[in-house]
Amino acid sequence: MAAGTLSLYHCMRKLVLFIASSLDGYIAGGDEQIDWLFTDQDYGYSNFYDSIDTTISGYKTYRLSLSFDSFPYPDKKNYVFTRDSSRSDTELVQFISGDIVQFTRELKQQPGRDIWLVGGGEINTVMLDAGLIDEIVLSIHPVIVGQGIPLFGGAPALRHFTTLDTTTFSTGLVQLKLGATP
Ligand SMILES: NC(=O)c1ccc[n+]([C@@H]2O[C@H](COP(=O)([O-])OP(=O)(O)OC[C@H]3O[C@@H](n4cnc5c(N)ncnc54)[C@H](OP(=O)(O)O)[C@@H]3O)[C@@H](O)[C@H]2O)c1
């Protein structure tokens, strides 16, 4: 491996899917309900948030965040994927249409902290199938919601991950940290 390639490899930022799901694999319930996700503890969120400087989301996830009191990641660089190239950027987000796989590949090669793949399920599969997800931190809530938006939408291709760590919280939430298998 050439020296330049090696140093590029070492400074490559990770794309991390940090996300919560139900026991039956949904990230939102029917009608996009997320009130079953508990937020009574930090569950490692603050440390993770400090480790990233950029977020990427699908438009539907961004659209849901507009119903919050305020935009949740105002101090980060935020990219939102949409096929509608007529959307106008805001002070807080930049819309990206076109080849989002190539966009993300190039983003990972730029210097910076890690990148948070916020979701949702549709975008997760695009990133997974392109082999761009380096780590997954999955907080599994001990609840069955029965229907909704799956963690990976559509039909993702078979892909193995390695379990790096597991944490069980007093509330029953189990957090898995998984690394992509080369
Ligand atoms: N539990 C959690 O931690 C968590 C985290 C994140 C999200 N969520 C939930 O996930 C739900 C949304 O997930 P979702 O799967 O329905 O949608 P999503 O992945 O958030 O967004 C889908 C949208 O992304 C755009 N898109 C998809 N593929 C694209 C491509 N190849 N190029 C450009 N743009 C593309 C399209 O936007 P346009 O329609 O504008 O073209 C598409 O409608 C929400 O309910 C949210 O609450 C939960």
Outline the structure in words:
The protein is an alpha/beta fold. It has a single domain (13-180), classed as Dihydrofolate Reductase, subunit A. The chain has helices at 3-11, 45-51, 59-65, 100-109, 121-129, and strands at residues 15-22, 26-28, 52-58, 77-81, 93-96, 114-119, 135-141, 149-150, 161-168, 174-180. The strands form 2 sheets. Strands 5-4-3-6-1-7-10-9 form an 8-stranded mixed sheet. The model is unreliable at 1-9 (pLDDT under 50). Bound molecules: NADP nicotinamide-adenine-dinucleotide phosphate. Residues 19-20, 27-28, 32, 34, 37, 57-61, 64, 81-84, 97, 100, 118-123, 126, 149, 153 line the site of NADP nicotinamide-adenine-dinucleotide phosphate (NAP). NADP nicotinamide-adenine-dinucleotide phosphate binds at residues 19-20, 27-28, 32, 34, 37, 57-61, 64, 81-84, 97, 100, 118-123, 126, 149, 153.
